[in-house]
Amino acid sequence: MNCESCGLPMEEAKDYGGSDMGNKYCKYCAPDSKLMSREQIKEGWIGYITKTENLSRKEAEGRVDEEMVKMPAWRK
Ligand SMILES: [Zn+2]
Question: Hey, is 53 helix, strand or coil?
Answer without folding.
Answer: coil
